[in-house]
Amino acid sequence: MAFPILLLHLTFFTFNVFSSHSHSHADRIISLPGQPHNIAFQQFSGYITVDNKNHKSLFYYFAESETDPSSKPLVLWLNGGPGCSSLGVGAFSENGPFRPNGEFLVKNEHSWNKEANMLYLETPIGVGFSYAKGSSAYTTTVNDEETARDNLVFLERWFDKFPQYRNRDLFLTGESYAGHYVPQLAKLMIERNKRNNVFNLKGIALGNPVLEYATDFNSRAEFFWSHGLISDSTYNMFTRVCNYSRYVSEYNRDSVSSVCSNVMGLVSKETSRFVDKYDVTLDVCISSVLSQSKVISPQPQQANEMVDVCVDDKVTNYLNRRDVQEALHAKLVGVRKWDVCSNVLDYDVLNLEVPTLPILGSLIRAGIKILIYSGDQDSVIPLTGSRTLVQKLARQIGLNTTVPYRVWFERQQVGGWTQVYGNILSFATVRGAAHEAPFSQPERSLVLFKSFLEGTPLPEVF
User: What GO molecular function terms would the record report (predicted)?
Assistant: First the structure.
């Protein structure tokens, strides 16, 4: 059972100046089926082999910046799960240049490639178009350590294809379970840099991330209660009798106690399956964007009554078209179709319980800027848990508040709230946003992203 939790974002490279490496030409996308005319930026996609012996190949999609790509940073984006696709969720549902709509692609006016060269990676093997050859390729359990190692090799070899990006400012971003993927990758990059300086890593940004699962998960009870989704008595049981981290821990070990089963039954009944847990204010049926988070939130007692009100998933339909796969230089190996979240990946879900907060501390000590942002309507990884953890981290490493808690603006509306510690660690909420903030609040997310890349304060006035 996988838990799609997190997205990670990686910038893409410029191709105004083609390198002498002719093989990067082969990855160039001439045109995606149904894309709007007059697209001025270049796109690339294809495979990087990360393990020659086991024939493991990771699929990437790269959209260079709309303007002046040679001066813009490179951003890597990772989706979470574990097991969900950065192509389908990140690129085609959240912050990429296009959104599928029937036969056509619609331009995303708030795409992150307005500010950066965006690189989307489908990881680990078995996710999306990423594959391994061999009969046992998808039967072994994958874990955080292996995923981080493969992602590191991917980046090193990606730079071989796109050497003009090698010294560019690099940012890692992602969401949900990317709270594991991104810090672990960044840690390996810093260790690698000690041998010889390969990565010009400047910062990481994580949206609604899993950082310390007990705090993150147990903040759900208060979020449900404060938003009127559960009763007082159920709130008491959900905090005192069986909290959510205990339930998930039991569930992942196939040992759910009757006491937890009863509490979760009450919670499920009261919150109702007709409320979207990734945005408690939204009506149900938001396409593929939401399936990435199902992994982290088991609700087995509802398994047989899950109604997919969005059977016709635009992203899945688009990416399963033969002409689209050909344009992307993509192939299906060991799976019959492209899925938003992998059906073949066997991920070690107990990795969920290992906190990544200490890694963030070591990254800050190494001078890496960190932004944790929260869509404030998400009950899966609620802002209250993330905010608590950021404060805890600041305290542990002795960072004082440099920007007191305040509102920030997007146009003439409040975009959210923010607090900054030591000018290196920031927390921000995105007002009205779901678990996937760039999907639900694209304009506000773009303002946040731009200020993060530029190292400038979020707008204080409209």
Answer: serine-type carboxypeptidase activity
